[in-house]
Each structure stands twice: as C-alpha cells, then as structure tokens.
Amino acid sequence: MIDTPTRVQPDGAVASAPGAVPTPRAASPRRRANRRRLGLAGVRLAVVVALLAAWQLCVNAKIVDPFFWGEPRGVWADLQDWVTVGTSQGSLGDQILVTLEEAVLGFVIGSILGIVFGIALGRIHLLSEIFAPFLKAANSIPRIILGSIFTVAFGFGIQSKVVLAVVLVFFGVFFNAFQGAREVDRNLIANARLLGASRWRVTRDVVLPSAFTWILASLHISFGFALIGALVGEILGANQGLGLLIRSSQNNFDMNGVLAGMVLVAVIALTAESLITLLERRLLRWRPPQTHGGAAIE
Amino acid sequence: MAAIELRNVTKKFATADGGTYTAIEDLSLTVEDGQFCAVVGPTGCGKSTTLTLVSGLERPSRGEALVHGEPVRGIDTGTGFVFQQDAVFPWRTVLDNVAAGPLYRGRSRAEAAALARDWLRRVGLSGFEDRYPHQLSGGMRKRVALAQSLINQPRILLMDEPFSALDVQTRAIMSTELLHLWDQTRPAVVFVTHDLEEAIALADKVVVLTAGPGTVKAEFEIDLPRPRVVQEIRLDPRFTRLYGEIWEALRAEVAEAYARTTRVAGVAS
Ligand SMILES: Nc1ncnc2c1ncn2[C@@H]1O[C@H](COP(=O)(O)OP(=O)(O)O)[C@@H](O)[C@H]1O
Ligand SMILES: [Mg+2]
C-alpha cells in the first residue's frame, strides 16, 4: 500500500508532482510576482493620471466644453465639498448608506430567491415544465420600466428601490442556478444516491455545491444590477440616495456633480466586486487554483 | 441463492431521432455470494448498462434483475458502485468523502469520521484526510472511491472499469490491493473491464460479452490459486493458457465492434 509510485511529499506538495520544488526556493517566484503586480498597478495609475490630465488640458484649451462634459478639477471640488460641507440632501455618508442599503438588500433577497427557485426548478422537472414559459416571458420584459410602477406602488422610500433591485438580480441568478442544477455530473448524483443520500441530501450536498460555480459567476454581475436598480429607483423618485444626488445635479446642469456621483458609485461597485471575489475564493476552495473565477480579470 | 442474477434482460434506450437503441439483449448472468466475476467485451457492448441494471440506477426493458433473490426496484443502498470516471465529490475533503456513506445511513458525525479514518488507513491514505480530491493523484482518488464504497460493507460491489484511467504500474498495484480488500469482506463483485489480462488476474469467473447489443458469449472459470499477486500471475503458465482460450472468444467480438465503428466513420467522412 505504501510502495506506490504516487507518493506525496510530507510538506504538502501536490501529489502528482513528487519532485516538486521545495518551499524555500518557492519564495523567489512569489516575490517576482509581487514585484510584477506592483509594477502593473503603477502603470495603471499612470494611465488614469494621463487621461485625467489630457481631459483637463482639453478643457483649459477650450477644446472640450466643461458645461456639457464636466472637468476633473470641478469633479474633485464637488467631491471635497460633499465630504466637508455635505450635500443638498444631507450628509454624504447618509446618501451612500441609503443607496448601499437598497442595493445590498436587493442583492441578498434577489440572490436567495434566484438560487432557491433555480435549484428547485432545475431539480424538479415538473416545476420547470410548468413555470419555464412564464419565467421566459417575464425575463423578456425590459425590467427598468417596472421601476416606474414600483415607485408609484411603493412610494419614494427604500421599498420601491429594493424591489426593483430584487427583480434585476433575480433573473440572472435564477437562470444560472437553474443551468447549474441541470449540469450536475450524473455520476456524482448516482454515487450519492448509492451511498444512501435522500433526495434532499442530494440537492444539498451535490447539486448545490456543484451549481455554485455557476451561481457565483452570476453574483459578480448581480451586484452591479442591484446597484443599477437602487440608482434608477432613486432617479425615478426618492428623498435620499446617490441616485437622487445625481438627478439633482443633472437638474442644475451641474455635470461635475453627475460625474462625482458616478465616481462614488464606481467605488462602491469595485469594493463589492472584490468582496464577492473573496467570498468566491472561500467557497470554491476545493477547486484547483488556476480555475478560480475572477482571477483572469482582477 | 445467487447474490446477483440477471434473467434474460434486455435494455433499450430511446434515441434522439425517436427510435430505440438496444444496448443489451437477452443477457443472463449469475454471480454467487463472495464470487469475483469479471465482465469483458468490446467498447460499447453494454457493460456499463449491465451494471446500472444490477444497481437499480436503470430498469431493464425486459427480463429481470435480482439481488439476493429479490427483484431490483430502484437504487439499492446495499450495493457499492465504483465508477469509471471520478465520482468522488470534489468539494469534500478526503475524510468527508469517505464518511459520506455512514452519515447518509444515519451514523453520527463522530462515528462516521472514525470509521472513515479506519478505512483510509486500510487503503493507505492516512495523512491525506484534509486534502481535496484535486490535490491527489489519479490512483489516490481511486483509493478514496474504493474506501467510500467499501466503508458501507456492501454485499454486492460493482466496478465499472475502475482502473482504466491509471498507468500500467499503478493499475497492477491497485488490482492487488483490491483483491486484498475484497478478501476482508468478500462481497460478490462484478468487475467490468475491457482488459482481458486484468479480468483473468482478478476474477473467479470471466464473462465474455458479444459486440453490441451485448449478450453473454461465453463464461470461463478461472481456477488460479488465491491469494494472487497481479503483477506476477501473468507469468503463470496456467494464466497464459486461459488467456489464449478466452481471447479466442473475445477476438471475434472486438474485431466486429471495431469494424462497425470504422465502417460508420467511413460512411460519415
Ligand atoms: N442513457 C443512454 N441513452 C442512450 N444510449 C445509451 C445510454 N447509455 C448507453 N447507451 C448506449 O448503449 C451502448 C452500450 O453502452 P455502455 O453500456 O456504456 O457500453 P460499454 O460500457 O460496454 O462501453 C452504447 O452504444 C451507448 O451509446
Ligand atoms: Mg462503459
């Protein structure tokens, strides 16, 4: 039993590479990778600075009209103003929190509903036969339009935004979970059943983890959808939030304000994206490292 | 009473164009308790299908599948199954993979883990409890699959070309280990392979199937003494004689299956 050609090093090197590089030497490539990443970040920063400088120069040279297109200096001034003095609707923190709350609630509720319905319909053939046409029809509606209905039905508060975000998130997650539940390796299901798993245990222990690869891929895009839902809802009618801030800047023909709002939204979206990537790394720990999702475009 | 009995089973599958495809036809097979039966036949002759009928994953279109005299109705958890492709759960650690069976059968978490550790020791995987399957070699994953199945002490063990993805040396070693493990609990085994040497080295009985639709062409008793060491038994003159005899029966079927696929390919191209 011990004398197999597939022995593994005690330090935990991968089994298929018995002569793997020992740990001390492995530090060098890692340092090189770190240096490379730092270099990349530097270049990216330089690109941003160059673009902003070019924009500002074009404005200064009167090639670009800041009334229509804004200017970096003005955007920066607006941001500073919002942070130090506050916005016309109250403190900037409150605006961010309101939008964030709507987006996160919409994201969580929409994702859970999408996963539950997707897995259920993927597992239970009869359910999918009954409901598939309805879902396809619902999916073909341009969902942003629903925002107007929700604003009228649920009012100017947080509710109408959350509902819109839920609707936007739901379909993406649903279709991925459904597909994921359908694509589960049939051998794995057969194996679990032969080992004695009930239908529910098969769903929980085999279908769900297997579908998670698909589901996580959709979650990356979904937070973006949730944010869009919250912002559009606010633009359609609200008392607070970043969407309203953008809307009132637009009403005042303050393009710098609109752009400053966009910058804040982008920061939120990127932060959420990196949190989701962290979650993904954790949940998909069992996969070989090179296939970790989200690693291709960091 | 036989452990496994297939009585004139036929299995037809619906094809995409609305017709039916007969995978096995009028196949009869008996495996006694504690007997190691190897099934050989050319690719596509219905070997895997035969196993799915015994395990209850599929129902016969005609005929009957019996296990310990009872007709097979649905999946029988007294049957162990080792799949051709990896069927260990990639998101579970080695320990959790092996502990799955006892857990599903109502053992407590601690009991299941203790049992799993014991079986990992028996298949030579102590120290790898916390690895994920992708961190193991192909041979080690097969050991996990074996332990996962044997931990439930099945009275019937079905194996579908379990070692076909392994290199020749690992395969011989694994075969010897399999015999050793089998000897501890002596379930009735149906071991499907397309490798005649492997079949003779392992089995008490070798069944040759015809090119699809599969049916039994001939059965051979293998009277080589046990315990056997797979790596060495090939040198035994009795092995060579059996090999010649069985190959005589198998050759025509392999040639037929090959001719069929090349003909089809020829038409298609
Ligand atoms: N679920 C299925 N649906 C349709 N055809 C199938 C199915 N399973 C197997 N077959 C066909 O039945 C034949 C026998 O398959 P199989 O039992 O897997 O052969 P073997 O294991 O001997 O290679 C093959 O031609 C295969 O294409
Ligand atoms: Mg097969």
TrEMBL record, chain A:
Location of the region described as Disordered in the Swiss-Prot/TrEMBL record: 1-32
Q: Name one GO biological process term.
A: transmembrane transport
Transmembrane region(s): 38-57, 103-122, 134-156, 162-178, 211-238, 258-279
Keyword DNA-binding appears in the UniProt entry: no
Q: Which InterPro entries match?
A: MetI-like, MetI-like_sf
Q: Does the keyword Plastid apply?
A: no
One Pfam family, short name please?
Answer: BPD_transp_1
Q: Where found, per UniProt?
A: Cell membrane
High-level lineage: Bacteria, Bacillati, Actinomycetota, Actinomycetes, Micrococcales
Q: Which organism is it from?
A: Intrasporangium oryzae NRRL B-24470
Domain (ABC transmembrane type-1) spans: 96-276
Assigned protein family: Belongs to the binding-protein-dependent transport system permease family.
Q: Which PROSITE patterns has this protein been placed in?
A: ABC_TM1
Source domain of life is Bacteria
* Record-given protein name: ABC transporter permease
* Bilayer topology: Multi-pass membrane protein
TrEMBL record, chain B:
For this protein, the record's CDD domains field holds:
ABC_NrtD_SsuB_transporters
Query: Which SUPFAM superfamilies does its entry note?
Result: P-loop containing nucleoside triphosphate hydrolases
Record the organism: Intrasporangium oryzae NRRL B-24470
Q: Which SMART domains match?
A: AAA (SM00382)
Keyword Transport, does the record have it? Answer: yes
Gene Ontology MF, one: ATP binding
One Pfam family this chain carries?
A: ABC_tran
Residue intervals passing through the bilayer: none
Keyword terms of this UniProt record: ATP-binding, Nucleotide-binding, Transport
Asked whether the UniProt record includes Ribonucleoprotein among its keywords, one would answer no
Q: What is this protein called?
A: Aliphatic sulfonate ABC transporter ATP-binding protein
**Occurrences of domain ABC transporter (ranges):** 4-236
